[in-house]
Amino acid sequence: MSENAENTKTTVKEFIKFNLVSFLVTLSQLVLVNLFLYLMKDWKAPLPGFLNEIFRTEVVGEGNNNWGYVLPFFLSNAIANVIGYFINRKATFKSNSPKWMVVVFLVVLSVLILIGTWVQGRLVYLIRMNYPSLASLAPTIASFTAGILQFLVLFPLEKFFLFKKKES
Fold first, then answer.
1. Is 167 inside any structural domain?
2. Which listed site, 16, 87, 103, 111, has its alpha carbon 20 to 30 Å from 129?
């Protein structure tokens, strides 16, 4: 088999494994986001400066512009994806990349989570306004959608940068 064909085969295997890990990450995140939203539903403390501007009521809807809304999405996403990072590092990409690469991952992940949390807030608001019968499922639908966006960034980031194979 040619080296190119072997690389393609490896990438397909990694893509499948990454999807399986992502599925577990998504399930964990969905459970956590709903649990955290329930536990923090009464925490209405306002967000600080720039976050308050990003999560304006006009954009994300009434009640979605406070710590009790933003923090559950951020925490559930961060916890699930950090676990996924370590699983992918060892099981999917079989990498011995430097440990400091986790810092790069955390920076990118934090930006992705902030964007994803905003998208989730916007989707929850739109679903609740336009499809009231789906209101209770809105956080789950929004988390799933944001997860797809993250997947589109994280697979190439991990495959080609964070866990890049050393040339022999």
1. no
2. 111
Residue 53's nearest CA partner among 114, 130, 104, 12 is 114
Examine residue 168 and state whether it is found in any structural domain, yes or no.
Answer: no
Q: How far is CA 38 from CA 5, 47, 50, 137, 147, in A?
A: 49, 19, 25, 13, 20
Give me 96's structure tokens: 């011995």
Number of domains in the chain: 1
Question: CB of 28 within 8 A of CB of 83?
Answer: yes
User: What tokens appear for 59 in the block?
Assistant: 């954009």
In angstroms, how far is CA 77 from the centroid of its own chain? 5
CA distance linking residue 138 with residue 124, whole number of Å: 5
Task: Write the CA distances from 16 to 11, 13, 108, integer angstroms.
Answer: 9, 5, 22
- The model's pLDDT over 88-120, given as tens digits with 9 standing for 90+, comes to 999 999 888 888 899 999 999 999 988 888 888
Q: Which two tokens stand for residue 52?
A: 């308050």
Rounded-to-integer distance, Cα 159 and Cα 163, Å: 6
- Axis-axis angle for helices 3-39, 138-157 (nearest 10): 150
- Residue 16 domain-assigned? yes
In angstroms, the CA 36 to CA 71 distance is 8
pTM above 0.90, yes or no: no
